[in-house]
Design goal:
One of its GO terms (cellular component) is nucleus. This protein has 115 residues and is an all-alpha fold. The protein has a single domain, classed as Arc Repressor Mutant, subunit A (Orthogonal Bundle). The chain contains six helices and no strands.
Length: 115
């Protein structure tokens, strides 16, 4: 991102067509498409508000991972907050979540691959 002003939370507007890119910049998050999907479904105001909460949490020292070995990334906090805030059916729509039993066989097949 070349325009550093785009990476300033105070410059963001809910109707900005580049909002998802700016939020990704602020969070250091490479999953711009996922942030774009969240913005489209939940709206720019929700995304800006959530990003402000993430920035505040990070300023206060961050949020540890479940096992406490490190702090979550800003993007990880953002996505976790989204998942905890909205209805489960909307979470599935946004994150394209599949039932766990369908994913486990794929993971087993990946472990058999050699590079």
């Amino acid at each position: 991102m070349s325009d550093i002003n785009l990476c300033n939370i105070e410059n963001l507007r809910p109707e900005d067509p580049n909002l998802a890119v700016a939020i990704a910049c602020l969070l250091g998050e490479p999953a711009v498409n996922l942030i774009s999907r969240i913005t489209t479904i939940l709206g720019g105001e929700f995304v800006i508000s959530t990003t402000k909460k993430v920035i505040a949490l990070q300023t206060e020292g961050g949020v540890p991972t479940l096992n406490g070995s490190r702090n979550r990334t800003s993007g990880g906090i953002f996505f976790s907050f989204v998942k905890k805030t909205i209805a489960r059916d909307i979470v599935k729509l946004i994150f394209n979540e599949k039932p766990r039993q369908a994913i486990e066989p794929l993971e087993a097949n990946f472990s058999k691959l050699t590079v």
